[in-house]
């Protein structure tokens, strides 16, 4: 293959986004966006939760640890939660997570919380596209590799089991 046929420009960075969406509102809005054929960045993986209040901080940390460049949490508008106050619980956890991520050297913009009702398919599209562009600007998340587990050699102890 000659050099003139090769593409000289590198592929643009396509960030991976993990989205935790409330079943009753944001997930339904994402479904509406899809059935309405609204075009949004294809780099988001949606995980449906019964309520945004069910988001466990460990889910977010695991998403980053497993290669996500950003995490999006979507829930019902305050006052409209199917479970009364789940979205307020999500908001408290979100604020704590942002502080934790910042202390770990991860940009706060990599975690986003949005209130999106079931009828707001257009908002799902806009938020995903905005987050994709923000993550492109930040670049890939490069977490430090886990340190290797130190291997220790067991030495028999006189008169006992090692």
Question: Could you explain the architecture of this structure?
Answer:
The protein has four helices and four strands. Helix 1 packs across helix 4 (121-138). The protein is of the alpha/beta class and 162 residues long. The termini are far apart. It has one domain (14-138): Lumazine/riboflavin synthase (Rossmann fold, 3-Layer(aba) Sandwich). The model is unreliable at 1-7 (pLDDT under 50).
Tally of extended strands?
4
Arithmetic mean pLDDT: 88
Q: How much of the residues is beta strand, in percent? A: 5-15%
Spatial order of the strands forming the largest sheet? 2-1-3-4
Give the secondary structure arrangement, pairings included:
Blueprint: E1 17-22, H1 26-35, E2 44-49, H2 57-65, E3 70-75, H3 86-103, E4 111-115, H4 121-138
Pick out its properties:
alpha/beta, single chain, 162 residues, Rossmann fold, 14% strand
Brief digest:
The protein has 162 residues and is α/β, with parallel strands linked by helices.
């Amino acid at each position: 293959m000659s050099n003139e046929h090769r593409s000289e420009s590198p592929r643009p960075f396509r960030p991976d986004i993990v989205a935790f969406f409330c079943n009753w509102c944001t997930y339904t809005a994402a479904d509406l966006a899809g059935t309405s054929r609204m075009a949004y960045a294809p780099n988001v993986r949606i995980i449906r939760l019964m309520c945004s209040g069910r988001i466990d901080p460990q889910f977010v940390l695991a998403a980053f640890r497993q290669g996500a460049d950003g995490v999006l949490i979507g829930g019902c508008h305050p006052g409209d939660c199917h479970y009364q106050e789940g979205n307020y619980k999500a908001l408290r956890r979100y604020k704590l997570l942002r502080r934790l991520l910042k202390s770990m050297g991860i940009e706060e913009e990599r975690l986003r919380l949005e209130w999106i009702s079931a009828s707001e398919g257009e908002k799902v599209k806009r938020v995903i596209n905005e987050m994709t562009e923000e993550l492109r600007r930040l670049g890939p998340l490069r977490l430090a590799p886990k340190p290797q587990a130190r291997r220790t050699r067991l030495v028999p102890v006189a008169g006992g089991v090692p």
